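Cross-check.
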Amino acid sequence: MKDIIEKILAYLPHYFVELGQVCAGPKRFIAGRDVNSEEIFAASLVFLAISMVLGILIQTPFNPPNKDLWIGFGWTAVETMFDVTSGALAVYFGWWIVGGRARPRGFFTSYSYFSGASYVIFPVFSLVALSIVKVLEPERFEKISQRRPGSEQFKMMVDPVFSASVIGEPSTTLYVAYAIVWAAILLWLVWFIVAWGAFRTLSGRSKIRSFFAFLLAFVFFYIGSIAFYFIDLASD
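Predicted model, tokenized:
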């Protein structure tokens, strides 16, 4: 275990360099690597694993008091495996339908890097948003961070009246927090559209086919996400 920890710590400087490169130029980052090689594929999985761990640690200060950290690690690992596998398959089959015949490994490698960056960036934005709520409205924060059954979480998402009865009426602080989260989502969408060019390069197809592949991948990924979301709710 000690050797593993030492190797991870030694790798961290390289990891943060790669994280910056993926965020700043995802298409250029992938273009500079042989994503079909076993070495780069393995490196992408290491990058993904470290990103997952960092994402969990970033969110740890805001976990409910009764949430076990190790169980959280285990469940997040399962979620990550599902998300990356289903996402990469959605991208691959989206391209396959429009005539792309690139090797699957290249798609999985590229998607692992892109997912790894997302697993760090989103928690950072969430950390900022929740910190604002915790400092300015500590009572509301306690209500938001409280662990609830999956059915109740889902009802809060689809029923604003019920949500207000649980965490209180929306306030300026809450709107600011929501704005930060939505800004992160919009920035990610723009970033991912840029990153999508890496898949087009791998497939060697036109922009028109790339557009339809994007739509198909989105539909496949959305279906998979909804299915896993209900599984996640049922597990709570």
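The mean pLDDT is 84. Residues 2-235 form one domain. Passed to J.P. for a second look.
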